[in-house]
Amino acid sequence: MEFYYDSLQFNDHRYYLIASNAGLCFVGSPDAPLSEVNEFFSTDKLPSDPTKLALIKKQLLEFLNGIRQSFDLPLDPQFGTALQQKVWHTLATIPYGETITYQELAQRINRPTAIRAVASAVGRNPWMMVVPCHRVIRTDHTMGGYRGGLPLKTALLKMENTLTTLAF
User: Fold this and answer.
1) Hey, what's the signal peptide range on this chain (predicted)?
2) What is the architecture of the domain spanning 82-162?
3) For 61-113, what is each residue's pLDDT tens digit?
């Protein structure tokens, strides 16, 4: 399978995007190097191809500018255990502007005692923002972790509650 990359620039931050012919494979953390993708899956050859990622970039920019609330993109999961896949699928059902706790997420997938495993799966979500792992918080309503960094998670949640553009 061939993979392609491009980057998205928004508010002085760069996000690397990886896609295959089947769909989006990965959204990178803000300002992380392209090599961040190697933490998720390896690629032998990764050519840059902006045309393959044009729709992905368009929808992400619309989301970051407060225009889009959901994504209509094919996703191409390149890895993940059955539990991770189930968590990621369930993350995609969390509505814009709402949050749930890691415990609630574990209950939704019928694994109420697997909170740590669920939290780990959330942290391994390769489609940051597109599959909204930023909408998951701790039971005490603190932020918890976020691959993109807590400033971005905070900004995304604030944006979704106020329907303004992202200030990050």
Assistant:
1) none
2) Orthogonal Bundle (1.10)
3) 999 999 999 999 999 988 899 999 999 999 999 999 999 999 999 999 999 99
Query: What's the rounded Cα separation, in Å, for the pair 74 and 133?
Result: 17
Region of 156 on the Ramachandran plot (φ > 0 left; ψ -120 to 50 alpha; else beta): alpha
Of the candidates 46, 26, 123, 55, the one whose C-alpha atom is nearest the C-alpha of residue 84 is: 123
Mean of the per-residue pLDDT values for the chain? 91
- On whether the CB atoms of residues 133 and 100 are closer than 8 A, the answer is no
pTM of the model: 0.90
Q: For residue 25, indicate whether it is catalytic.
A: no
Q: CA neighbours within 13 Å on the CB side: how many for 85?
A: 8
User: Residues 133, 137, 156, 166: which is the catalytic one?
Assistant: 133
Distance of CA 112 to the CA centre of its chain: 23
Q: Are 13 and 60 in contact (CB under 8 A)?
A: no
- Domain layout of the chain by residue ranges: 3-64, 82-162
